[in-house]
Amino acid sequence: MEKEHKELPKLIVILGPTAAGKTTWGLTLAKKYNGEIIGADSRQIYKKLDIGTAKPVGEWRRNGLRRSYMVEDIPHHIIDIIDPGKRFSVAEFRDKAVKYVKLIHKNNKIPIVVGGTGLYISSLVDNFHIPHVSPNKKLRQSLEEKPMDELFVLFQRMDPEGAKVIDKQNKRRLLRALEVCILSGEPFSQQKKKGEPLFDILQIGITVPREELHTRIDARVDQMIKLGLVKEVDLLLKQKYSWELPSMSGVGYRQFQEYFEKVKSLDECIDLLKRDTRRFARRQLTWFRRDSSIKWCTSLEEADVLVQSFLQE
Asked: How does it assemble (predicted)?
């Protein structure tokens, strides 16, 4: 099986918790190895959500026959593509990512997936075939009436494995997971069916000591505030994007709801964002550590050695 994998097109994945340095590592490697980047971040897919998602600063430019989101002259795909009022599924991500990996290879370049959304990365790495379960309005309404803790207990009962990694503060995600469990009769975490490998993959995880990661997260949040995150949220609300949307219910945005509703002070909301981001990073690591094929690195130099050797195989 290993030998068969070697015949497949190569794909590099750079993953890790938020604020670990994935963007820098990805850009450095893409420049060195003639690569293009495919984003695997469920927040950076949205247009207008720039500061709160730590989206790399870039611009849309012509790149050959098509337009690409360019960051330091490196084309980025599946970033800045969806209106905040729309939904984007894991299945859609997988299909787009597979298309771009093949396209990048066709142009004799190296595809590098960079991101921290575990489900996106798994869908590509494990070639998941994800069944489509359509939203059910009646079921959704009856679930929405229940308090969050009751929803979580219900989900825990139906899908103990899924309950370990889901963001229990994210009501939208919890409702969707329950909906899929109830309508399909199977645990949400087991809905994915693995397919045959499509690519020969090197997965590199970034390791940062816990205390240092927390310091980086705090510094990043402070920087986001300086860059105008509160104004960004305000503009989104003025454009009638509601807190219930997938785009607005994630870490970086929902923490400011009580500030805009005049329930909490700005400082309280900033502290809440720091705390929730630390918790989010912990959940990301829990997800990634289940995959024994990830090679964890503490420095970019260490990762570079692995990439060089992988590309020469």
From this structure: Monomer.
Where do the domains of the chain lie? 2-128+194-312, 137-190
- 62-111 pLDDT, tens digit per residue, is 988 889 999 999 999 999 999 999 988 888 999 999 999 999 999 999 99
C-alpha to C-alpha distance for 31 and 72, rounded to whole angstroms: 9
What architecture is domain 2-128+194-312?
Answer: 3-Layer(aba) Sandwich (3.40)
Instruction: For residue 103, give the 3-state DSSP assignment.
Output: helix
- Backbone conformation region of residue 82, classed left if phi is above 0, alpha if psi is from -120 to 50, else beta: beta
Three-state DSSP at 63 gives strand
In the chain, the amino acid numbered 23 is T
Cα separation of 216 and 87, whole Å? 30
| Token code pair at residue 144 | 């929405």
Beta strand 35-39 with 110-115 is parallel
DSSP 82: B
Q: Comparing C-alpha atoms, which of 185, 211, 188, 207 is closest to residue 294?
A: 207
Instruction: Please report, for residues 62, 70, 72, 222, the alpha-carbon distance to residue 58 in angstroms, rounded to integers and kept in the order given.
Output: 13, 5, 7, 21
Binding residues for substrate, by number, are: 18-23
**Segment 108-121 mean pLDDT:** 96
Q: Averaged over 112-122, what is the pLDDT?
A: 95
Neighbours of 221 (CB within 10 A): 24
Geometric angle at alpha carbon 250, from 22 and 218, rounded to 5°: 55
List the binding residues for ATP. Answer: 16-23
Binding residues: 16-23
Cβ–Cβ under 8 Å, residues 204 and 14: yes
Tens of pLDDT, residue by residue over 15-73, are 999 999 999 999 999 999 999 999 999 999 999 999 999 999 999 999 888 899 999 99
